[in-house]
Amino acid sequence: MHQSSLWSVGEQGSPIPAPMDAALEIGAYEALWCEHNASFKTIAERFRGVPGSRPSHLVPESEAREVGSRVLAKLRERTQQRFDVRIHGEWEYPERLRDAADPVELLYIQGNWDLVTLPAVAVVGTRKPTSEGIERTKTLARRLVKDGFTVVSGLAEGVDTAAHTAAIDAGGRTIAVIGTPLGKVYPKSNAKLQEHIACKHLLISQVPVLRYDAQDFRSNRFFFPERNKLMSALTLATIIVEAGETSGTLVQAREALRQGRKLFIMNSCFERKDLTWPARFEAKGAIRIHSYADVRHQLVPADSENRRSRTAGPLVSDC
User: Fold this and answer.
1) Given pLDDT bands bounded at 50, 70 and 90, which one contains residue 244?
2) How many CA atoms lie within 13 A of 53 on its CB side?
3) How do 84-87 and 106-111 pair as beta strands?
4) 302 to 104, 204, 287, 299, 315: CA distances (angstroms)
């Protein structure tokens, strides 16, 4: 873990580097999460109430130091000491993350942080996709890679796994935003994939370590839909491949529209008579797509068309 730094303003208005004690900020942020009924919303409200504050401004230093030492010990053990953090106020923290409904002040990461500076598209959907849904996901990921986009997803089983794997197999970049702390894996079957992404790509977690460890799996479920808000903020657009009426993916759909991001929904979702959400979101501004050409038309600048020799055919024959 590096010693973080941010830019502050000197007496003459010139930017000067001021050190940020990452261990202190981690401890303070985790201490906020240990408070009764803490949530992304309540913590975001705390920071909105004191603009420009760091976590350490809201927690006594002695408490932050003690909590921070416990968190760091856990993370070092679980990640073989390969992790870092990004804190709001650092120059490396992307300002677009503030578009989320409840912006996150601190992120735990493993891998290549530079990937967040590149254009990215989220590909998300159900944990139990159809075989056609899997093929559509793979095709989307491959073609996004060919057009230079980083593929972002949540490392869940189903659509997420297919998106990450296809992007990697195509020689592209991928970012996984997980619903567990670093060093924890869900589902267990994705342990090797998570390790590969952490080493060769980028793994991001906004989940507090101590709070997660103190709760059972039922209470920790709420971290999964919350990470969808971060995925939307990270990306130019979200593509939904397949999703049920109560899918956590719809959290990302709502957030994408609220954030002003593009939301694409595959035509096959509209063809299901048991689903009402596709029409609702289309009425609010979502874009129905029949082929990758529809995505490309919205995201790839027209002047780049002449520089590319790739085609954009249908995702699958019955898309």
Assistant:
1) very high
2) 16
3) antiparallel
4) 35, 32, 19, 9, 21
Per-residue pLDDT of 299-309, as tens digits, reads 987 545 433 43
How far apart are alpha carbons 67 and 74 in whole angstroms?
Answer: 11
Q: Two tokens at 55?
A: 């976590």
Q: Of 121, 56, 49, nearest to 88 (Cα)? A: 56
pLDDT tens per residue, range 130-160: 999 999 999 999 999 999 999 999 999 999 9
User: Is 151 within 8 Å of 163 (Cβ atoms)?
Assistant: yes
Using the 8-state DSSP alphabet, how is residue 204 labeled? E
Distance in angstroms (rounded) separating the CA atoms of residues 115 and 173 = 8
Q: Please, what CATH class does the domain formed by 113-307 belong to?
A: alpha beta
Amino acid identity of residue 77, one-letter, is: E
Q: How many CB atoms within 10 Å of residue 189?
A: 10
Helices (H), the chain: 22-33, 40-49, 61-79, 131-146, 159-169, 191-200, 209-214, 217-220, 223-234, 249-259, 267-270, 277-283, 292-299
